[in-house]
Structure formats: C-alpha cells, structure tokens
Amino acid sequence: MASNESEFGTFGVRPEFAALESVVSDVLIIGGGINGISILRDLSLQGVKVTLVEKGDLMSGASAASSHMIHGGIRYLENGEFRLVRESVQERNDLLRTAPHVVKPLKTTVPIFSLTSGLLQAPLKILTHGKGKRAERGAIMIAAGLTIYESFSRINGVMPRFNFVGRKRAQATLPSLRRSVKYVASYYDASVHEPERLAMDLVADARATGNATVVTYAAAVGTTDGGVLLQDQLSGAVVRTAATLVINASGPLTDITNEALGRETQFMGGTKGSHIVVDHPALYNELAGRELFFENSDGRIVLIYPVKGRVLIGTTDIFVDPRQPVRCTEEEVDYFFNLVKHILPGIELTREQIVFRFSGIRPLPRQDVSQPGFVSRDYRIDEATLPGDASVPFLSVVGGKWTTFRALGEHVSGIVLVKLGKDRKVSTLGLQIGGGKNFPVTVAERKAFVARIAGSMPQSRVEQLLERYGTRAESLVTALNASGDTPLNSLPGYSIQEIAYLVRAEQAVRLDDILLRRTTLAFTGDLNPERVRELAAAAAGELGWDGDRTESEISRAWQILADNHGVVVEEMAV
Asked: Beta-carbon neighbour count of residue 132 at 10 Å?
C-alpha cells in the first residue's frame, strides 16, 4: 500500500480499508447511494457475500439531493411511461407499509388555471414519449391522469381518493393562493422527511445478515489482475480487492467510474436539481401539512411543502456536466422566489429566511430530448465484463428514481443470482425495513413500546428516540441505559453517548457525516459554532481524534456547509 500525504493529509490507513485486500466477496458494489444500498440489502438477504465501497460517505451524492418525496410520478404518464408509474405507485404503497417510521402519506394540492388546456396535445405527447408541444394541464387532463394514477394502486381505501374544489373553497385554507386559480385538485402521495435515515436502516438490515461489508471513503480508481483498485480518500493508500462479479452503482458518475476502470461509456444524461429550505412560519402554517405541486410556465415541476418545521422549495431541471461540482445558484434562488410569488402572491420571501440549500445531479440515462423534464426516470442494467478480465461480469446501473429503489435492487439482484448460480431465498417486497419493523402505529401501541424498553430512562426521552429512529431505538436505549445519556449543553435533544452510538453503529467517519446525514441539524438550520464543537467532541471520543484532528474536522465541516449549502456562520473564538 502506498500513501500520498501531499494530497490526502496525514491520516493513518484505516483497518477496515486495509482489510478490503483480504475480503473474499461474491459481489463488489461501487457506489453508496440509495440504489447501491438497495442492491446490497437484497443480495445479502439471499446469502450472497457482498462488499459495498463508496468514495465519500453513504448517501453523500445524488441520493442526498432528493425532493424528499416517495411518489409515483403522475407527470410521467404524459411521456407514456405507464410501466414506470405503475411500479412507482406500487413501491410507494409498499414503503408506507414497510417503513412507516419515515415514509408518511402526503396530501398533494395542484392549482389549476383552466378547464380544457392540454387536451389536444396530450395524446401526441404520449405517442412521442414526451416530445410533443408543452401545454398547460387543465382540470379535465389532470382528472384523467389522477384516475389512471390511482388505478395503479394496490391499496384501496388506505388513502382518500382525489378531489376537486373551486377557487373560493381552496382559498379558505390557502388564503395566499393566486386569484386566477380556477380549481384545485388534491390527491395523496408520500414523503420521506429523512431519506438518509431510511438508507441507514437498509444498511443496518444488510449488515445484520453477516454477509455485508461496507467501507466508505474508498474510491474505485482502476483494475488489475481481475480485481478493482481502491484508494482510501483519507490516507491515499491503495489496495486491490476482488469479487466474482462487480456492479457500478455510482449514479450520475457511472460513466466516470467506468472510465476509471478502463471502460468508455456514454450512459448518463443527468440533470441538475436544486432546492432551498426556508424558515418561514407563515408559509409553513398556511401549507398545513400539504404539498403544493404544479408545473411552471417553463415546463419545470414545482413543489412547495413542509418538512421538519421548515418549508422545502424546488426544483430545477438543468442539463449539466457531471464532472463539475453543482451548487444551488443565486439565479435558482431568484427562480424559486418567483415561483412562490406566482402561486402564493401573499407570501414574501427573503434570502435571510433560507437556512439550507442543496443541489445534485439526477442519475438519468442519456436521451435525445430537448426538455430536461422529459428525460426518462426509468432504469436499465448494462451487462459487460470487467476491463482486463473477461471472466468477471460487470454490471452498470443506469437511471432510476428514489421511490423505486427496492424494485431496482431486486431486479439487479435477480440478474446477479442467475450469474452466480444461486436461488432467491427472500423477497424484499413487503419486508419491513429497519426501524419500521413492528413499528407501533396507535397511541396505545406507542405507549406500550416505550414502557417496555425504557428501563431507567425517562419515557419522554424514549419517545423522542422512537420518533427519531423507529424501533431501532430499542438497541440505542439499551446502550444508553448502560453507558449514560449526557445531554449536549447546547443541544439537549441529543446526548454525547447518542452521537457516539451513531458513529459506531452507522459508520460515520467525518464530522460532516454527522451534521448532514446521521442527523438533520444542517438541513433544518439548527447548527451554530457551539453545537458543532460539542458534536465534534462527542465524535472525537468515539473515533479517537486528537485536538488537531478535531479542529481540522470542524474547519472542514464549516467549509462544506458554506460551499455546498450556503450555511455561513462565523466561528466563535475558542
């Protein structure tokens, strides 16, 4: 193993990274986004020995930039993508059952400006897969789409049917709504307020089988002798790891990863999607738990909805180069402000109300379309062999969307099982996920669960942890009863031992892993210098950081928050 301190710093080689050289795997997955994690879980449940490596933290790429929605994608009906919409609706329903701790029904409201718009263009757009002329959707069009949409659902009566009301009734609950709105349609989809928490649960399920190895900050940089070369992004060390089959699940970076491994491809044609999160009590209260969902005049889909006490506004859809970093620009912020003003002219937004920005590249397949919104969200699997060794099957996952991660994972797993000559042992359809397992739904069930696991801990604290982690809170409560539960001075909702547990159980390596992905503190704008220092100290105790390393992590985290998310706070004097 070689190091490169000038580029990577002076961190030592991590034992878990060094061990990759001796790990014997049936499958190596490159990419720790939601699709790679889903494949990991499915394969490990089948008894397959699988290793997943990710060049950054889990869920730190495209999967971290989602709109926090679990939805069927009603607008894809216009592109003729009926199979994708049917699958998405069914997967949404499955997640409502299997991950009830994080996936919740979401009332979705669509403002409509006309009765008949789009009727003539819709058939042509379906026949040409979205290449027809764009037209505003009227009430008749939307009603037809919702009828088809709800027909795909396998759960009848769980969520209310869609309905229409006129402007006067709509303005009774949305007083800021533009007066030129003639109708409002409402239907139900779902949201996931903490997508990273769902992903961590999937990883925990995989690791619990004893068949899964996960190493972060390990980048695939080449191939040799039928194996893949991995570089530790902390120390610069390089090891070779081998597997019977290799999967590239690196999302929008699929072509770039293939190039690093020695294969030239042009699979990806992703688009940039940006969002802002605002602290705006008036807007939050007016939304009253519902999402506003509509199409802007430029054809982009707009969503405005409440998440964790804040309001999420998005999204853009812009062709970009995946080799370049993406940021939410000031022009995009202006675009979002104009959108809100267009549909809710009674609401005033200022930049001071923005607590978080984020942007990512959708892992979409390259297609010949003029409008980014018409690029298919469907997925496909490319089959080849590993460059330099034709005996090693090499799969590239192209496309996909958050909602269909389970179906994609099962699809890829099915291909792998055939190639390995193994049989499927378990279906993940209907299989409860992480903290959703036996999740108490009623008030009585919650009280009984809390009373059973609390031990010496106050039941109010156990309630908080149940809300945060689902039924996985039970193992955390057991650990805290044994080790203590010392609240952070600046953030009493978290404890030193809880942060240490997250580091240990969920493989956090850097401070920003905790601020951005093991908690939602950055997303909700709840960070300040004192809190970041306390969180860093709690992590340092578990990870063995000295004073210099802790200061380095704090500086790095603030730089990431400023550069990538517009979070700028002057560090307090020590």
From this structure: 18
Rounded Cα distance, 184 and 163, in Å: 8
Q: Which amino acid is at 574?
A: V
- Output the pLDDT for position 6: 44
User: How far is 355 from 568, CA to CA, in rounded Å?
Assistant: 10
Query: What pLDDT is recorded for position 494?
Result: 98
Cβ-contact 90, 71 below 8 angstroms: no
Residues 248, 257: contact at Cβ < 8 Å? Answer: yes
With 0-12 / 13-18 / 19 or more C-beta atoms within 10 angstroms meaning exposed / middle / buried, residue 272 is buried
Asked if 137 and 296 count as a contact pair (C-beta separation under 8 A), the reply is: no
Query: Under a CB-based contact definition with an 8 Å cutoff, are residues 268 and 366 in contact?
Result: yes
- Two tokens, residue 132: 């027809």
Q: What is the pLDDT of residue 495?
A: 98
Cα 63 to chain center, whole Å?
Answer: 4
Distance CA 375, CA 365 (A): 7
Query: Which of 300, 264, 304, 298 lies closest to 283 in space, CA to CA?
Result: 304
104 sits in which H/E element: strand 103-112
The verdict on whether omega for the bond into residue 315 sits within 30 degrees of 0, i.e. cis, is yes
Nearest 10 degrees: CA dihedral of 159, 160, 163, 167? -90
Reading the block at residue 221, the tokens are: 């940089």
User: What local confidence, expressed as pLDDT, does residue 136 receive?
Assistant: 65
Cα–Cα distances in Å, from 154 out to 89, 93, 147, 315, 517?
A: 8, 8, 14, 29, 33
How many residues can be counted in the chain?
A: 574
Q: Which residues pair with 28 in a beta bridge?
A: 51, 246
For CA atoms 425, 202, 99, 470, the dihedral sign is: positive
Q: Where are the beta strands (DSSP E) in 169-279?
A: 183-192, 212-216, 218-224, 227-232, 238-248, 271-278
N-to-C CA span, the chain? 38
Is residue 54 within 8 A of residue 257, CB to CB? The reply is no
For 183, residues 6+ apart whose C-beta sits below 8 A from its C-beta are 112, 115, 139, 164, 165, 166, 167, 170
Question: Tokens 């496909």 — which residue?
Answer: 380
Whole-structure pTM value: 0.93
- What is the mean pLDDT for each group of 10 consecutive residues in the chain (574 residues)? 51 93 95 97 98 97 92 76 86 95 94 69 46 64 84 65 87 90 92 95 98 98 96 96 97 95 90 95 95 81 93 90 92 94 94 97 72 61 94 94 94 98 97 97 96 96 98 98 97 97 97 97 97 98 96 97 91 44
Give backbone dihedrals phi and psi of 448, rounded to 5 degrees, phi first. -65, -40
- Residues 440, 448 contacting (CB under 8 angstroms): yes
User: In Å, how far from its chain's centre is CA 107?
Assistant: 20
Q: Which of 32, 422, 19 is nearest to 244 (CA)?
A: 422
Give the C-alpha separation, 45 to 422, whole Å: 12
Quote the pLDDT of residue 493: 95
- According to DSSP, the residues that pair with 380 across neighbouring strands are 398
- Taking the CA atoms of residue 123, residue 126, residue 129 and residue 134 in that order, the dihedral angle to the nearest 10 degrees is 50
Q: Is 389 left (phi over 0), alpha (psi -120 to 50) or beta?
A: beta
